[in-house]
Amino acid sequence: MQGRLTDAEQLSAALTELEDQYVWAADSSYDTATAYERQARALGDERLITRARLCQANMLMRMGDVAAAARQIWALHRWAAEHDDRVLQARTHLVWSNIHRHLGDAAQCLEHAVLAVELLDGSATAYMHVWHRTKLADALGLAGSMDAARARYEQTEELATDLGEPHLLLGVLNNYAYTEHAAGEHERAQAVTNQLQLIALEHGLELDPAGLDTIGAIEIENGNYSEAEKLLLEAVRRHELGRYEDADALAEYKLTLARAQRFLGATDRAQDSLDKSRELCVSRGLGDVLVRVHQEQAELHAARGEFAEAFAVHKIFFAAHHALHSSQREAQARTRQAMFETAEARQEAERFREQARRDPLTGLRNRRYLDEQLPGMVEQCVGLTVAIVDLDHFKRVNDQLSHNIGDQVLIQVAKILETELAAVSPDGFVARMGGEEFLLALPGITGPTAGEHLDGIRVAISSYDWSELTHGMPITVSIGVAGLTDTNTASQAALLSIADRNLYVAKHAGRDRVVAGKHLDGRHRSYRNGANAA
């Protein structure tokens, strides 16, 4: 990292470079992303902080700590979704797809890979357009949909070519060849690797170590063991120059090299390569590769005629294989638990957030929700009407019947308001402002139409059969109405002020009525400031 990046634009560019690297060292990239997060926090830029943390999650996954990556991904995805950041959402789903690939969940891997492509738009980088589609092809191959995978690989080849991204084109073809090889389609895999090598030659590019490993594995299947050894030795050489991708990369290359050397009859060279792969597996905790090292060791003993030793190593292989599957199941369980706990915490937070915006008595939205939602509706909705609804003579209900009956009346009025509003304004909402006072927001409904609907709501309340609850005491409401066209300035305060004055007019005109429009008469005071107005 060259110097301290203090400017947000410079830091964003540095993050893009890190995000769009095709070949990297996971551990040093994690350290770089951590340093970028500190700088983003110093700048107070939430988006840059989130991007840096997503890079960290990606590197954690590539270093093998899938559970830690899974714990981080929920919060990062939520931030991106809440801020409608499509690029960040796309990148998040790509990491999520890889997490599920590590878990062996091909269906979820594919689902997130699809979303990682669907979210791409004009603001996505050229790298994203190519690589996200490549990973979708990989996921399709993992799920066994080879025809669909081939179609995606071919589309992505064309895109990488059109964008003039030869390095990414080599990455696409490498993954394509590996997927064909893994599916047992060795002739197809060979054809793709031939194309891969031709393009590298045309552009004067070196194949990265992973590409050489893929070609080497295919050459072994084709019986070209000498060529495979040369390719794998070159993969190891280039890896040791510092160009590597994942923590298990060198161990994999050494293992493939040992296989090529065994088939050549060069058992001493094969043993040396295998010993080095084993050392890496032990030092880095690479259980999956270590199991295959044991398997190759048994094959190597058998190739030398050491059948007793081969049998002994086979027993080690089966024990390691069983232990690996047990540890994999435990790791998967830990990762799924981490994902569950994070999701559970997110859902719990959402539940408390929802509770904080609900009136506990009526279940309606409360004043906090109103203050959060109404300003946005004022800005975005050209036609908006609000109405303040207040129960008439509600103090009599509490004093003569009891506060419990008063609560039951409020609950029933709330139900009527919600039901009636949903019928006329499905996108609107009802909120309890406090006491016996409610607010209705009716987006897209204005003028006489709004007045007619609100009068219908008034009638629905007064005509409800209250006899069983209030024993003959009538329940009516007064309604003060205001539309955006009634205000001099489009704001929540202006709307509520006019609705409040109209409610005052309704109360002093005899109650049980709806009053709308802009009243400039100074005698029309605020309802809240009118003594004994209820």
Total DSSP helices = 22
User: Taking strands numbered 1, 2, ... along the chain, how are they ordered across the largest sheet?
Assistant: 2-3-1-4-5
Measure the end-to-end span: 69 Å
Amount of beta strand: 5-15%
Unreliable spans are 520-524, 529-533
Q: What is the C-alpha radius of gyration, as a whole number of Å?
A: 34 Å
Share of residues in helices: over 70%
Largest sheet features: 5 strands, mixed
Shape: elongated
Mean pLDDT, to the nearest integer, reads 85
Instruction: Tell how many strands the DSSP assignment holds.
Output: 5
Task: Output the structural class.
Answer: mainly alpha
Question: In words, what does this structure look like?
Answer:
With 534 residues, the chain is mainly α. Helices cover 70% and strands 6% of the residues. It contains 22 helices and five strands. A five-stranded mixed sheet has the order 2-3-1-4-5, sandwiched between helices. Helix 3 packs parallel to helix 5 (86-103), helix 8 (146-162) packs antiparallel against helix 9 (166-182) and helix 9 (166-182) runs antiparallel to helix 10 (186-203). The radius of gyration is 34 Å and the shape is elongated.
